[in-house]
């Protein structure tokens, strides 16, 4: 039998061993617990594969997680603003029928180009079909414009991009465009040649010679002055008078200047007295709109007679271009609303069962119904024509297109 104190000693050693083992386990658990929260690397080893452990990637040894970049939305190109609104009106009245075509546009639209054009690339003689002009300009729409002389020379004011092609007659209103707004006003032009202390005024400008006087011709008139009688010419090239030349046939217009031609004894004596070879001369003009010199306008184009003025029908019974305005015929007109919107209207006529046409005052009443404030007459009859996207939408009274000297084109800017 073992001694009691030996047994007691072994029990004590076993208890101590158990306590040590228990202490080691406790310390190990505590260490794991501390490492779990303080060391993301250890936590990452023991964490579940679904990644529920959260940590601050910026302050940890583990690389931070970045979500894949959200794809940028594909830019959406806005639908282009409509260039115009076109519609037709049919009316059947007890005594006549009507077919009317209306084209409305907002000239403040920055994508829109609207302007008058002549038949031969801004030269002033000749005719072309409106469809040819429309195609040449790749226009979206086109309407016949105003009046011209029998040789195709435009009948009144035509100024565009700072160049005066033909002067105002002073008898009819003109359609202007400035700062994206259209307006119709009475206008006239003042033209002069000046330099080296000399001023020449009271001039015919780009006008076919029909009477005695001083004429000025620019390259837009053509290559020659078309004068077939004795006349004296001052040839001004690059601002300098290169010589005074007497001719009895057409004489050349300088491409880099202008030509002054004197027809008749008085005009010739005036030119010889005031203009000398070697002088510096400059051609100047002013467009005067109802008493004020205009500046900054994109273009101006002379129409026919007034139809509406400030919501009042002011059309005369006749004018110098077409004679009577009281009969029902095909007509074209341009109007402007209070907000600057332009309205072109083409009325078919001379076609029984389709459209008889309108008098000028009936046209004025229709324009009022369309909300137009000011309006002016354009060339009518067989010249009345409207083209939309390459198609002639009205019914020309001659059964086909008629050649015209000028038109209005509407197109989207490139």
Please give a handful of descriptors for the protein shown:
alpha+beta, disordered N terminus, seven-stranded antiparallel β-sheet, globular, eight-stranded antiparallel β-sheet, 414 residues, 5 helices
SSE inventory with pairings:
Layout: H1 4-38, H2 40-46, E1 85-92, E2 97-105, E3 112-118, H3 130-136, E4 141-144, E5 158-160, E6 163-166, E7 173-178, E8 181-195, E9 198-200, E10 204-205, E11 213-217, E12 231-237, E13 240-247, E14 257-263, H4 265-274, E15 282-289, E16 292-293, E17 299-302, E18 306-309, E19 312-313, E20 318-319, E21 323-324, E22 331-336, E23 342-347, H5 360-369, E24 374-378, E25 386-388, E26 391-392, E27 406-412
Structural write-up:
The structure is a single chain. The chain has three domains: 4-59; 85-189 and 287-412, no CATH class; 197-280, no CATH class. Helices cover 17% and strands 34% of the residues. It is built from five helices and 27 strands. It has helices at 4-38, 40-46, 130-136, 265-274, 360-369, and strands at residues 85-92, 97-105, 112-118, 141-144, 158-160, 163-166, 173-178, 181-195, 198-200, 204-205, 213-217, 231-237, 240-247, 257-263, 282-289, 292-293, 299-302, 306-309, 312-313, 318-319, 323-324, 331-336, 342-347, 374-378, 386-388, 391-392, 406-412. Residues 1-12 and 34-66 have low confidence and may be disordered.
